[in-house]
Amino acid sequence: MNLTGKTITGRRSHNEDAFCVFSGNGRVFAAVSDGMGGHAAGETASRLSIDTVKSQLANAEPISESALSLAFSEANRSVWEASQSDPALSGMGATLVAAVPFPACFLAANVGDSRLYLYHDGTIRQISHDHSYVAQLVRYGIITSAEAKTHPSRNLITRAIGTEPDVKTDLFSSEWEPGDILLLCSDGLSGSIDDERMCDILKGRTDLDAACEALISCAFENGSTDNITVVLLENTEAAK
């Protein structure tokens, strides 16, 4: 597997995004989190989410859907308990998306609106489901996907890590092939460039680091006012 990731503060005064890419002990995984609740609280929520998932998955044997679900539950517990123990952190929460790739398939999970995409054979599609108010409106046919990008309530999250004692996690599994790429990102990217542009950048990549840089630069140049985080995982397994 080839993997890389980067986060930038962008036009914000501080960065409430966090991510990890892990490769070791015979396992590979990645995660992205976007914190909310104000400066210290948002940074704390995203970092707790990432650190907990990393600790859980680095020691899971094996990494399965149940292990991934448990990692998200533990992340939720960590953020919730921290928010209850410190008034300065009250009400904090975070989005969280993670992917665990294997040679022929991958597992994934998400809570919130940080996203996972699969790039395959010159096309890209979103794997995760946004837990947001505008995503619900789109699903019900009340607004279009294009209208969702400028809707005044587009930042309203309907499910998050750490805002309640328990959280429901969406789990996914899918096949993928050599040359395919998993893209994990915060809404600083997905809210500023469309799927077609993401696909063009990945299609024209010279290497994975360059593609990561190009995605972030494109979002920033398109006027993103949020922190921007991108993680890429490429399937480099030889075709069977």
Topology:
Elements: E1 2-8, E2 17-24, E3 27-36, H1 39-59, H2 65-85, E4 93-101, E5 105-111, E6 115-120, E7 123-126, H3 133-139, H4 145-148, E8 170-175, E9 181-185, H5 187-190, H6 195-203, H7 208-221, E10 228-234
Antiparallel strand pairs: 1-10, 2-3, 3-4, 4-5, 5-8, 6-7, 6-9, 9-10
Features:
five-stranded antiparallel sheet, 7 helices, 10 strands
Structure description:
The longest helix has 21 residues, at 39-59. The protein has 240 residues and is an alpha+beta fold. It is globular. The strands form two sheets. Strands 1-10-9-6-7 form a five-stranded antiparallel β-sheet. A five-stranded antiparallel β-sheet has the order 2-3-4-5-8, covered by helices on one side. The chain has one domain (2-234): Phosphatase 2c, domain 1. Helices cover 33% and strands 29% of the residues. α1 packs antiparallel against α2.
What is the CATH homology-level superfamily? PPM-type phosphatase domain
Distance between the termini: 15 Å
- Architecture, according to CATH? 4-Layer Sandwich
How many discrete structural domains?
1
Instruction: Trace the largest sheet across and list its strands.
Output: 1-10-9-6-7
How big a fraction of the residues is strand? 25-35%
CATH class call? Alpha Beta
Report the sheet with the most strands, covering strand number, pairing sense and barrel closure.
5 strands, antiparallel
Helix and strand element order: EEEHHEEEEHHEEHHHE
Low-confidence stretches: none
Structural shape: globular
Mean pLDDT: 93
Q: Please tell me how large the radius of gyration is.
A: 17 Å
Provide the helix percentage: 25-40%
What is the helix tally? Answer: 7
* Named CATH topology: Phosphatase 2c, domain 1
Structure classification: alpha+beta
Number of strands: 10
